[in-house]
Amino acid sequence: MRLAPASMRGGAVPSGAARHALNLAPLDAALGGGLVRGAVHEVYAAEADDAAAAAGFVLGVATTMARAACSNGEGRGGVVLWLRVVRSARLGGVTQASGWAELGGAPGHGLVGLVPDGMALLRAAVDALRCGALAAVVAESHGPLRELDLTASRRLTLAAERSGVPLFLLRHDAAPVPSAAQTRWQVAAAPSQALPGNAPGRPSFDVTLLRQKAGPAGMDWRLEWDRDDCQFREPALPGAVVSVPVHRSADDRGAGSGTGAADAGGGGSGTRRHAA
Question: Would you say residue 55 has pLDDT above 90?
Answer without folding.
Answer: yes
